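Q: Here's a chain of 374 amino acids. Please give me its 3D structure as tokens.
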Amino acid sequence: RGRSLETALGLATPDHLWQDSGDVFAIFEHCFNAVFLAELLFRLGVLHTRFFYDPDICRADYFNMFDFFVVLLCTVDLWVLPAFNGSVQGNMTFVRLVRLVRLTRGLKVIRVMKAFAKLRILLRTVVASFLSLFWSMVLLSILMFGAAIFLCQMLQQTLEDEDVDLELRRWIFEYYGTSSRASLTMFEFTHSGGWPNYSRRIIEEVHPAYGLFYVLYVSIVVFAVTRIITALFLRDTLQVAASDADMMIQENLQKTKKYVGRLQQLFELADESGDGMLTYDELEQICKYPEVRMYMHMLELDFYEVQGLFTLLDTGRGNVSLAEFIAGVMRLKGQARSIDMVAMGDTCDRIHRRCAGIEKQVGRQAHALEGMRP
């Protein structure tokens, strides 16, 4: 549509390559909306009321509500409104409704953010940091407005001096002539990065003393304050990323998958017979190579740990399968190992209490036998 308007305004010549592009984009739009609608219906069919509210955590899922709203409006825009468009062309209320619904097409971009962890984190950071953003802008606005009023007042004498070059006076008025112009200039000065364009002529053609003001402003506001605010937003971003359960689950799954792949490589390297079963002799033989020991060290495995694990996993047949080997190594590492240690400690406590009870019973019986002696 933009290319058509460009041609209609005489800003470009007709391009035959783009003449039928509208139909192509319309096909893509219908296909994507069909996929979105099918996904929404599938999730509604599986989750039912949990799609909108999860009773386990007692919290409404606002992203799912947003999905439902966007897909519904886009479906109405693509497949419902065109059926009535021709019969109610003169109804201005209906035309405004159509335009309002079509604005929701841009919301599809936000909906897609859910599928990408980094975009989701950025969106959540903006939402979580909204209050910090507000007060940061309040602080910057106060500093910028104060600097703008200072420059506007100080440069009034230069504007009134008829001995100063007229072109310079006009330039000063354009950027600093009124409080609103000076405020806009300081906003651009602070955020655009092109502050020399607004200060060089003041320093060189009005008075060099203004250079001290600009140096202080750039050092304190442009450099220090903005970087402190950036650091605060970075901290919030890291906190949101650390609390993002979905991303943490995905990262742990990826690490586990990569670790399992390396264990499989180690198993296949040790399985010299190629029968899919690992014997103790094969493991002992492969561990004689320093390269293999280094690889095991990279996997945070100790050779003696693997030897002990093999002894534990061997059920008497003298070999271990790939699945048994991977499951056993995974239990050696991480949280599973800690849980096993806790379970082992609990078992030891129970054994100790049982032994203490048996010891007391044996003591009582021995005491009774001693009393029965003549």
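Q: Can you summarize the key feature?
A: Residues 7 and 13 are 6 Å apart (CA to CA).
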